[in-house]
Amino acid sequence: MAGYETSANTLTFAMTLLACHPDLQKRLQTDLDRILGDRPSSTWSYQADFPKILDGYLGAVINETLRLYSVLPFVPKTTRERPQPFISNGREYLVPVNTLIMMNTSAVYRNPKYWPEAATTGDDGPPAPVSSFDPARWLTQQNSVSAFDPAPGPFIPFSDGPRVCMGKRFAQSELCAVMAAIYRDHNVELAVKDDERDYHERWQEARRNAERELSTGVGFLMSLKLKGPNEQAKLTRRTSVGVDVSKRRFLQLGRDPDGNGLERQGELGEDNGDLESL
Description:
Strand content: 15-25%
Radius of gyration: 20 Å
Structural class: alpha+beta
């Protein structure tokens, strides 16, 4: 599960959040263009490219997604055979031996003491993940490529200490590789039909649906995930000038009523049936 389930869930959250924020998606693509240019992915290198990607806007997107949707909403720790000192508000306590402590990461990652609150919009109810999604907070300056490193404690998506997640670097590499390969050449959009009539209104309705699902449609089974059925998204190839809608490819993702993943591909303009039926 650690090598697949956790990364797949983080990708789902990150790509849905970016689909709700086309302006932030564009900024991500601009940064990937700066790092990768038009080189084929077969020439990308862990040594040369991964550090730049992780310290750039994509790394910021991943951190902000993990802040809003930590893989585990709690991190378990135990004192085992020796009592351990614990300091809270300047006062020291002694935690007895064999005490299990469950750290509520979902609460810590939204604590306004460390993370500024955002005004909610539309149907983005508590805890307002779409409104709070701000990857730029992870960069030292608005246009910097240097990653922000928060104080110890408020952000530990891979746990911390001697038992930090041994798959941390693998997960970061996996997320960077997949998202760079997708966003360098494609957009991920909310699945709204591309005709001109009422497009804006239908896109806003799709975003409201996504906001509701990202706020109230999330549940914890073995890890934090969307319970579905989800608002759909589609993958479209990036274009530098106008868009010929009839030639755009799409990849549509969704779930059936039993929660099974579904995927449909094709070319817009074909007789694909009801694209919103997944």
